[in-house]
Amino acid sequence: MKLILTAAVDNLGVEGDIVEVKPGYGRNYLLPRGLAVVATKGSQKHAEELIRARQSKLVRDRDHARELKEQLDALEGVSITVKTSEKGKLFGSVMASDVAKAIAEANGPTVDSSMIKLDKGHVKTTGSFSAPVVLASDIEAVVNFEVVASNAK
């Protein structure tokens, strides 16, 4: 069954791709969820328009990603205050969303937490750390941040 994707589908393709799938997968999963449409001559023209729009957006996004990379690489003073016990042990852990919030509080650009890649997905100790921020497939910035203890009673 030949379909045109209207949204990105894992392990299949991105919006505008023309794909060949088994009839059951297309009929029972992709079409009912609105993730694809049947490939006809008219829909193939529409797919070509989607691909052109995606490519022009990609160029615009790469320029924006480079600007964000420069801002993030130059950013200093990113600090996350966490509650700790009297012995210095963290209550919980520092997640990517906490790092994104700290970047915004340090007058940095707004970054989605899904772009921040922490080792093991979280930080469980105080100290200085760095985390890569994936802005595009080939553009990556590094954010340095510090986890500071605040004693909770």
UniProtKB/TrEMBL annotation:
Pfam families: Ribosomal_L9_C (PF03948), Ribosomal_L9_N (PF01281)
Record carries keyword Repressor: no
Domain of life where this protein originates: Bacteria
Domain Ribosomal protein L9: 13-40
Entry keyword set: Ribonucleoprotein, Ribosomal protein, RNA-binding, rRNA-binding
GO cellular component: ribonucleoprotein complex; ribosome
GO BP term (any one): translation
Stored NCBIfam families: L9
Functional note: Binds to the 23S rRNA.
Family: Belongs to the bacterial ribosomal protein bL9 family.
Name this polypeptide is given: Large ribosomal subunit protein bL9
Source species: Corynebacterium choanae
